[in-house]
Amino acid sequence: MSSAFEDLQKKLKQLPGLGFRSAERLALHLLVERPNRLPELVESLQRAASQVRRCTVCGGLAEAEVCGICSDPERDPSLICVVEQVLDQAALERSSAHRGLYHVLHGKLSPINGVGPEELNLESLAGRLASGNIRELVLALPNDVEGEATCHFITENLVPEGVAVTRIGFGLPSGGGVFYADPVTLKSALESRRRYS
Amino acid sequence: MSSAFEDLQKKLKQLPGLGFRSAERLALHLLVERPNRLPELVESLQRAASQVRRCTVCGGLAEAEVCGICSDPERDPSLICVVEQVLDQAALERSSAHRGLYHVLHGKLSPINGVGPEELNLESLAGRLASGNIRELVLALPNDVEGEATCHFITENLVPEGVAVTRIGFGLPSGGGVFYADPVTLKSALESRRRYS
């Protein structure tokens, strides 16, 4: 075949969800079937890499200092929903069930994998909570051991008095991440949120 | 979220085998989880786009005028295997069962979809067959209506006397039970039955 082709196939195979066959198919699609898509994809990748950064407030994706959600005056700034990753935030946004802001941790506590509080986006959450402007903190973390530990850590260490802590409720299948849930499930999970601790 | 992010997600979703969720996951992987992979992928795409081209002999992938298979002196140049696409060639190469050369048509005849003989890589196949150096032409095209029509067209119009034309066998895949096979496969398996012992 071709070594540049095999290299591309290898690079594609490293990406999540792509196996050997799908990487091969993608590479051929971009090189043989639809070669005009390749420069478009390259441009899109480069533009995203240069423009997309972390929101300094919530840690989500932004193209400016502060993301579009954090700077949206229509949203309730006293209500913060804590999520593990940007994918979870995107899934919640699709459900339109949360009208407050977010805080993206970019992970969950996992001592086994060497993920401690310092590895997570927790310092800025502490700052937001200490501002005195937060009424409620909704914990939208998965209900596995690590999600549990993260909820516990936040509640014990970061939440000042006067802030209600809730956790999204039943409806989420055990062991299932927020990302995989459908909008209706997420909506009911948000509606059935209960006081935590 | 971010418009550069959404644009990247849209571009990824256009690729074969990628749905909305997998495109979103890929985009986030490249932007948030493993940002160092993005420039590597871009470089690999650009290198492949600039280096990979069609072999002027067989139509397969090459990094020079002629591909590595066509220029391999160990392979039998009198035996040509005709395939629909490069993916088919790659699958046959993995089987190590074909020691001759290839000819990649980049499609199959499909009047309904406006694919006539001019749209396929047939002219150079005619040239190779007319050279007088070909002993056998193996048609490794699918056994659907279009594959059938393509086999028929090649045999009727391009093959000079003295060239044996064969077609790969159809039947039950290795390890596949009769119970799981579809009716068309079973029909061709029965039709291509051979005397046993």
How would you explain this protein's 3D organization?
Two copies of one chain form a homodimer. The model of chain A has no long low-confidence stretch (mean pLDDT 89). The first copy, chain A, has 197 residues and is an alpha/beta fold. Chain A folds into two domains: 3-51, Orthogonal Bundle (Helicase, Ruva Protein, domain 3), CATH 1.10.8; 73-195, Dna Topoisomerase Vi A Subunit, Chain: A, domain 2. The longest helix of chain A has 15 residues, at 37-51. A five-stranded mixed β-sheet of chain A has the order 4-3-5-6-7. A two-stranded antiparallel ribbon of chain A has the order 1-2. The first copy, chain A, starts with a helix and ends with a strand. In chain A, strand 5, helix 6 and strand 6 (164-167) form a beta-alpha-beta unit. In chain A, 41% of the residues lie in helices and 14% in strands. At the A-B interface, helix 1, helix 2, helix 3, strand 2 and helix 4 of A face helix 1, helix 2, helix 3, strand 2 and helix 4 of B.
